[in-house]
Amino acid sequence: MIKRLALIGYGAIAKDILQILTPLLQEHQVPVLILKRSALSESEQKELPAFAKVINHPNYLWDFKADLIVEAAGQESVSQYVPACLSSGADVVVTSIGALANNDLYAELLKVAEQFKSRILLPAGAIAGLDYLQSVKDAEDIQVTYESRKPVAAWLPELKALGITPDALKQTMVLFEGSAAEAATRYPQNLNVAATLALAGVGMERTHVRVIVDPTLNQNQHHIVVTSRYGKMRLQLSNTPSPNNPKSSWVVAQSVASVIKKEFSAIKIA
Description:
Elements: E1 5-8, H1 12-27, E2 32-35, H2 42-47, E3 52-55, H3 58-64, E4 68-71, H4 75-87, E5 91-94, H5 103-116, E6 120-121, H6 130-136, E7 143-150, H7 156-161, E8 173-179, H8 180-186, H9 192-200, E9 207-213, E10 220-228, E11 231-239, E12 241-242, E13 245-249, H10 251-262
Parallel strand pairs: 1-2, 1-4, 2-3, 4-5, 5-6, 7-9
Antiparallel strand pairs: 7-10, 8-9, 10-11, 12-13
Helix pairs in contact: 1-10, 4-5, 8-9
């Protein structure tokens, strides 16, 4: 059971995670340490639970000796903090899974985790069906395709860079098509799902990804097709975007919180 919990980052997802977990953490009297480089705003200070403390330097994190650390600060934080977190003996929940498209970083994290007997926990996030994919991934004929369809609001900077006025987009537009490795690297805030699917299944290069901007949508859609000798899985999810970050689905924080809740449970559904 978790006795000490730490969060790296305190953005929209981290705040939602803490809010969801507050009753459980209070029940088990679990202290929480939050690493946040900038100062808290007045509203953040008022909302911060009494059992949580905010620090601005990682040295305090190592002194805290957390059992579980949640990375929720973007892909750069994975390489910056996660190796040291694992070497401290803590298990680490990685939310910026797209960072693991970097083969060297992925190999390093696995090596450190094995050396210090710690675990890297990857939440399903915005998607489902990973249990099925893991069951059939060794089939020689397996094919995995992932299609992301999001509203225009999720792609404003990308459209601007292409010289496209968002209001002028009336039809669906294919923004990207290629491997999960390239997708997760090119769109770090939008395509963590592609990396999650790849790691659960046939790898970054063999997982085919298509990214579509759809002006008719108000939710984030995920279409997953897995075909092999064992059968076919066709899965579609429509997720409500996070109120604070349209690039991310609101359910992501629920998924991360679910991973943490399992650490308090006597029974786990595998």
